[in-house]
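WARN retry 2 of 3 for item q-0093 after timeout on previous attempt; input resubmitted unchanged.
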Amino acid sequence: MKKIAGMLLAFSVCLFLAGCNNIRKDASASETGRTERTKAASAQAITGNKETDGKDQKENPKISYKCRKGSISLCIPDGWSCQTEKYKKTKEGETFGITFWKDSAKKKNRISVQYTNAFGVCGTGLKTKMIKINGISSEAGYYDGKSYWEYIVLGGKFKNTVTVLNYCESESWWNRNAHQIMEILDTLIYKAS
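OK item q-0093 returned
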């Protein structure tokens, strides 16, 4: 009896794991493509764009936060730190998210990925550019001729969406880390409820 119960448990685990790796059969082409791009971007972020033979390669931790308004997850590579920003409801709106930074630069230079139910910008000195974050067309805002964006609005929507805020105080920090920041952002998966 114990052997049968053990075999049933092992069989159930195998079925569960096999199901986790499959893409829904009814998924649209864009959803399937986004899933594949997410896997590829995660692999790039994990290896840091270095060719490896697979030895000594470890997976970056996937950081996730979920609440009643939705969920956000990112893969954060070695050398970067992060913290979740728990759900808050204030007079200005509702937010939650994940903030990440390189080494000990949190107070000066950090990137914050946030769900927000309302996001506004000032148009003075603003130039925008369409970019893609994990396959999602998004709008990046550049102020006062800076070479780095200060915000990205996913999907180009300013209500009930995810925004990425760049709290960069040093252009040299941005120049050193921009490529890896974009790789991290390309692992972003979010769902707004």
